[in-house]
């Protein structure tokens, strides 16, 4: 891998894409799990669901079950795996006075310490203190909670912090957002295939009639910028949409938010803001083998949103997602065929994709 990285990076600089095998080979996916997801910040949920002592949320980081718990000292992250038979301790999201595994009732306190094990009193050389839940890093980025298995990774704030200022400039008050919904989904494409589609709007005028009617996607006004470990796209609402003169039926785009923003946080989190009433959605994209992706979407709104607006914007987002799924599923079938082995980017329109692929090569080729 390390020996092959230099020619791959040189090819990316010329506008050539990664070879098809990088999207279909299980060995590549396994290296991504180890070198990307287990060394990066993984979004697990909103801070608003961790207000009270005992509140918890669960998720995954590079296939590792993880949990974040609010205890008397603050937020604590753990590998959500019992030290006994490695059953997951917590499920979903909720509140608990203690953390009890549902397999054999090994019970931990909110700081991860093992406090009770049935029948352990008669077990020789068994010490509860030897088997706490394994701690991991848990940090907040504004109102969002992330975890990282890598103890040496830079902080989430140092990597992504400036995105909070960009979001604030859109008219969205992050601290006022209210969690509206969470929905899991599956797709038949590689996770990179899906994110590379997200990272360019070259296809928007062709494949997204509703989005194109709402947002001005012309290349001279729709901006795409890289910021190290995150990248951003921004567009203005079309005047015809504001005036209700669009030829395509849209949700109500008139409101406090006049600028659309679409942010990508390495390696697999996207944050979306659409014009209209204050809104924000988060999507998380996780590999399910090389040829499928699992994910979830969370929707947030400013206080006082009408149910009509909420439903119409969620439907708008789902329509765009369905259009994207049709594209990326087709791309994945082309990649599985393996001919041609590489594609050719337009470097002025797809530079965010190239930046993403460079980060993949550099991470996966790492020998550490």
From TrEMBL:
<protein>
    <submittedName>
        <fullName>Aromatic ring-hydroxylating dioxygenase subunit alpha</fullName>
    </submittedName>
</protein>
<dbReference type="InterPro" id="IPR015879">
    <property type="entry name" value="Ring_hydroxy_dOase_asu_C_dom"/>
</dbReference>
<keyword id="KW-0223">Dioxygenase</keyword>
<dbReference type="InterPro" id="IPR015881">
    <property type="entry name" value="ARHD_Rieske_2Fe_2S"/>
</dbReference>
<dbReference type="Pfam" id="PF00848">
    <property type="entry name" value="Ring_hydroxyl_A"/>
</dbReference>
<dbReference type="InterPro" id="IPR017941">
    <property type="entry name" value="Rieske_2Fe-2S"/>
</dbReference>
<dbReference type="InterPro" id="IPR001663">
    <property type="entry name" value="Rng_hydr_dOase-A"/>
</dbReference>
<dbReference type="Pfam" id="PF00355">
    <property type="entry name" value="Rieske"/>
</dbReference>
<keyword id="KW-0520">NAD</keyword>
<dbReference type="GO" id="GO:0051213">
    <property type="term" value="F:dioxygenase activity"/>
</dbReference>
<keyword id="KW-0560">Oxidoreductase</keyword>
<feature type="domain" description="Rieske">
    <location>
        <begin position="41"/>
        <end position="147"/>
    </location>
</feature>
